[in-house]
Structures are given as structure tokens and as C-alpha cells.
Amino acid sequence: MWKTFVRQATADNLELLETIENEADALFATVFSIVGWRTARSYVEPSQQGGFILVACDDPGSNPIGFAHVLEVPGSNRLEQLSVRPSAAHRGHGRALVEAVKRESRLRGCKRVTLRTFADVPRNAPFYSSWGFLEHDPDSDFLRDQLLAEQKRELGYGRRIQMNFDLTDELPR
User: Fold this and answer.
1) Alpha-carbon gap, residue 173 to 165, rounded angstroms
2) Rounded to a whole number, what is the distance in angstroms from the first to the last CA of the chain?
3) How many CB atoms lie within 10 A of CB 88?
4) How far apart (Å, rounded) are the C-alpha atoms in residues 13 and 53?
5) Strands (E), the chain
6) Looking at the domain assignment, is residue 149 inside a domain?
7) Collapsing DSSP states into helix, strand and coil, what is residue 104?
8) Residue 170 DSSP label
9) What is the CATH number of the domain that holds 122?
10) The pTM is what?
11) Cα(1)–Cα(31) distance, rounded to whole angstroms?
12) CB neighbours of residue 173 within 10 Å
């Protein structure tokens, strides 16, 4: 059985997160063409924004093998990015990160976690659905603006949906 250690990202971790995201994003090529796909951005600047970055590791002192980037936005926390190295997939690291995001969001007084994801990609909406996220229409200015921004970029990689997890419906684990 695999053990996952989740902690806050440190400044030393931030450059590695870009590599992890690019490796994980390469898996989309098995589902649709990723021609024109933008590579991951640096996480040094986003770490200065409101929110938090959690990392998953095999051992407490080891390098991250996955991460969750969460933005604090009006009315909720937004799970902006969840990535796990493909070489570390199917060991529960993604689920451990999602649970840690929920815990940290509760500690910060948040009532829900939101995200946007691909509806028909197995590692996307079906994964989040299995962990309690439900499809919802964007119901705040921020979430509607996110939808409009996606529509303007005309991603064309597949149907995307808004998903929410209501933190008031579940007792902390």
C-alpha cells in the first residue's frame, strides 16, 4: 500500500511543479490532439497570489510527485490545478491531494471548492465525481468570467464543465 504525505509547497518546490504539470498534461494526448496546447506556467508568481499550493510526496522530505494549486476567490476556493506525475499515478496521490484541499479549505472558513474540468476525460470529471464533486452551472461573477474566458480562447479540446464540492455537506475526515 502506498503512503502519501501532503504538505504546503516550499519555495524550493515551485520550479518542479511546472515539470509535473507538463508531464501530467502529456497524458491528454491519449484522449485528444494536444497540438497548440500551452505548456505549464511557472508557479513562482502564483505562489504570491491569494490561495495555497499543496504538494504530495512519497516521503516527508522527498521531492513532490504531485500538487494542488488552489485560489481563494469570492465565495469559494477554486482548485485551479491538480497534477500528479504519470510515473506516480494510481497510488492515491490525487485523492490525497483532493482531501487535503478540502481540509485546508475548511480550516480557512471556505464553504465550497470549485473547479473546471473536461467532462469526458477519465482522469478529470469522472475522477472528481467519484470524490463527491457535482456538476453545477457557474453561479458567481468569478465563475461566469472563467467560463467566458475559456469560450474566448476556444480551447476545442473537449466539453468542459463546472464542478463544485459543498464543504458544509460532509464532516471533516
Assistant:
1) 15
2) 20
3) 21
4) 10
5) 5-8, 51-57, 66-73, 76-84, 112-118, 134-135, 160-166
6) yes
7) helix
8) S
9) 3.40.630.30
10) 0.83
11) 29
12) 6
